[in-house]
Amino acid sequence: MLLSIVTRGERCHSIFHEKNLLITEESKMEKRELAQTEKKGISLQDLLLTAVLLAAGAVLKFFVGTFINFFGMKPNFIIAMYCMAIVLIRPKVYYSLIIGIIAGAICQFFPGTPYLNFASEAAGALAMGLLIFIPAKSKGMKIGLAAITTFVSTVISGGLYTVLLFVFIKSDPSAMAAYVPIVLGTATLNAIIVAALYVPLMKALKKEIIEEK
Fold first, then answer.
1. So what's the pLDDT on residue 21?
2. CA distances from 116 to 103, 112, 186 (A)
């Protein structure tokens, strides 16, 4: 009889364990389904976050950008902030493109060649929107990916702006090489800014850096 009781107890424990596993799996599936549902559209929080970051980028560019200068190179806060927004909310590609166009519109309020920023910022944001979907399996990789994608997106944006500028003013293309260090320097500074802010902002927004599978 004792053996029978032990056997029944083991069976009950096994059934209880299986139920727990089933509940855990169902919970994970519900989280994934909820995440997929949320990603079908942009939430109000994401819209507000995008607006705040773009506004912050404009303010920093206006008040701080003129003071930060490393051997002629300085960060482009508007590019850094739209890259930051895309990294944080991980939107669909078309929304990243919209962010870039809005950033280009904001750039019209600053001195420079009119309208060129619409193309350059749209290209940079589009690149960012595509690159963020590169898989990263650890916190360090996520931070590194945020920095690298920001660097690449800034190079694309700055490079396209430079090319369009030379076409617009009909300047000698050979002089374009002088702008390469400036674009690369700006891209490096932007990458550092985004990498430094990524973890604190993710924690402030209560978002998981490494999503559950």
1. 47
2. 12, 9, 18
Query: Coil, helix or strand for 193?
Result: helix
CATH-assigned architecture of domain 42-204: Orthogonal Bundle (1.10)
88 and 60 Cβ atoms separated by less than 8 Å? no
* Contact indicator for 179, 162 with CB cutoff of 8 Å: yes
C-alpha–C-alpha distance, residues 129 and 153, integer Å: 9
What's the token pair of residue 174?
């050979």
pLDDT band at 126 (very low <50, low <70, confident <90, very high): very high
CB 150 within 8 A of CB 128: yes
- Joined tokens for residue 189: 């500074």
Q: Is the Cβ–Cβ distance between 83 and 147 less than 8 Å?
A: no
Is-contact 58 82, C-beta < 8 A? no
Structural contact between residues 47 and 62, judged by C-beta atoms closer than 8 angstroms: no
Does the pLDDT of residue 15 top 70, yes or no? no
State how far the Cα of 159 lies from the Cα of 11, in Å rounded to an integer: 67
Tokens representing residue 32 in the block: 């994934």
Beta carbons within 10 angstroms of residue 28's beta carbon? 12
SS3 (DSSP) at 73: strand
The predicted model gives 138-157 an average pLDDT of 95
